[in-house]
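Now for today's protein:

——
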Amino acid sequence: MITDMEDERFFEILARLERSTSRLLQDPHYGPIIRSDGSLAELEEMRIERREREERARARKLRTEASFAEG
């Protein structure tokens, strides 16, 4: 599912979430909390959305290149 957020903003949030989750998982106190509160599932959903956004961007680029080649 692609959210309504702009790509650039989405990628910023995902990068921040990747960094913070990684650090929190290493912490002896916060690690178990992150594993149990659904944060890892949310992170995985965002990673899937990132791949979908990247695929759409590649498809747009290919369509644009094809239209230039035809014209």
Notes: The chain is about 85% helix and 0% strand.
